[in-house]
Amino acid sequence: MPQEKILFANERGATLSGVWHHPFGGPRGAAILCHGMESTKNSEKLMQLADALAERGILALRFDFSYVGDSSGNLADITYSGEVADLRAAFELIARRSAGKVALFGSSMGGTVALLFAAQEAAIAGVATLAAPLHPEKFPKRILTPEELRQWRTSGFTIYHGQRLNVSLLEDLEKIDVPAAARRIACPVLILHGDRDEIVPVEEAYELYACLPGAKQLSIFRGADHRLSGAGDMRLAMQEALTWIVDSVG
Q: What CATH number is given for 3-135+177-249 in this structure?
């Protein structure tokens, strides 16, 4: 499907890099695709999902959050709140296209960002998440010792997978409340999660489902890890996400 590279700015003045996937003819809806923390807009699943959406008449936008990929900034400054602001910029960009209803897809951290944004923006028509943390504030305690957490606070940064992360991320995690946000989401939400997820416990998917007040669906992939790397798991998950988004904006 026809693709178009685009640059746009967030509220902080940073430059965000995105790619439009245009349907043939006028769009009958739109979708924004959000990558995870250690990924970019060029992940295989996002590119395939964007193409599949465009084939079904949906204008799709995949973009790099601040600090990664082709967008400006430094990964050390990453926060959930900052990515929500980036998603706001992407939503305002796509809204100016007058493409109809807008749905969101988010993977891992991007899924949580999509949930937080949907709680703020009543115009979102639907959300699909894959392996999204409901309690990202618990993650530091799972990967760091109490002493390492103390050092993160006192030194102002930590190293995760060879990357510097500033204490602003830890402070942001202590401010956000994803379950409370989920309870404010009015649109339909699809939750995709593997029951062997080693990064985000599957219990968080069940809890997220319980928090959501509106239409919702929970799909658990048996034996699947965080990346749904088992044979056929990702293909089936993306097919479910595709159908959910098309139905949400159609």
A: 3.40.50.1820
